[in-house]
Amino acid sequence: MTDTHRRPAGVAKAVVPAAGLGTRFLPATKATPKEMLPIVDKPAIQYVVEEAVAAGLQDVLMITGRSKRSIEDHFDRAYELEEALRAKNDTQRLHSVRESSELAQVHYVRQGEPRGLGHAVLCAASHVGDEPFAVLLGDDLIGQREALLRRMIEVRDTYGGSVVALMEVEPEQVSLYGCAAIEATDEDDVVVVTDLVEKPPADQAPSRWAIIGRYICDPAVFDVLRETGPGRGGEIQLTDALRELARRKPEDGGPVHGVLFRGQRYDTGNKADYLRTVVEFACERPDLAADFLPWLREFVAAHDTARADD
């Protein structure tokens, strides 16, 4: 349980790393940040910010890089566009345009060079200060009916230290993630993380429980990251810093707990999963599903028939 001499402070800020080059989506991301690729009619990063706000986090820091100006523009006011929509009395689109600029207090800091997720998080040190904070990766979208981040904050409030979101993956996918060695607690969905390994071979993974893109970090992670050298891929890995914190006592920034997530997660980091995400979100939309679903059924049936005839 929480050390009575180190009562955990509440989580109030979210950090969203958004400095990646998006090479898997070239040429689309040559001039457009991957975070701005649309999921139906909203950029992926807006869903991430909405998730943070739904969990009670109104202060959002974006870690950006070169050619990411459109992210800032999206969360800013667009006065000329708003005026044009107002003149047309198009209140629905006017609301959708203003919504992103009114979501949260959004701040920005540049990551000068892409040196890994750990380095991106370290760029947030001045803004975050000596407070726990959430990290949300834009490649992972969590189902809108889920309350994963809020649950992680509750676990941090109870146990202190850091918290990671864990999802069980197939053995052949283990090498794509950071994986955790875990021990049970008295809560069904909460575990103690005893070790972490970044992208291990399947036969060397401590478990099939993989870290997905949600973290609650104790501020002690910053000092650890400053001393963390390049790890897998030659980058500074957040997983390596959390591994160190998992070995520590509460008064030194530990421990690390995991929340076992069994809900809906969308991985938009590769083309096939991105397309699945767009289709699923479209099917969930009342304004689209009535027309889209019948067309989709007909398309799939025609596609299957054509393949059977080959």
TrEMBL record:
Record-given protein name: UTP--glucose-1-phosphate uridylyltransferase
Please give the catalytic activity noted in the UniProt record. alpha-D-glucose 1-phosphate + UTP + H(+) = UDP-alpha-D-glucose + diphosphate
Q: Which gene encodes it?
A: galU
Coiled-coil stretches: none
EC numbers, comma separated:
2.7.7.9
Q: Which family does it belong to?
A: Belongs to the UDPGP type 2 family.
Biological process GO terms, please? UDP-alpha-D-glucose metabolic process
Cite the CDD domains for this sequence: UGPase_prokaryotic (cd02541)
Which is one GO molecular function term here?
A: UTP:glucose-1-phosphate uridylyltransferase activity
The protein's UniProt keywords, in alphabetical order, are: Nucleotidyltransferase, Transferase
Q: Using the record's annotation, list all stretches that form the Nucleotidyl transferase domain.
A: 13-276
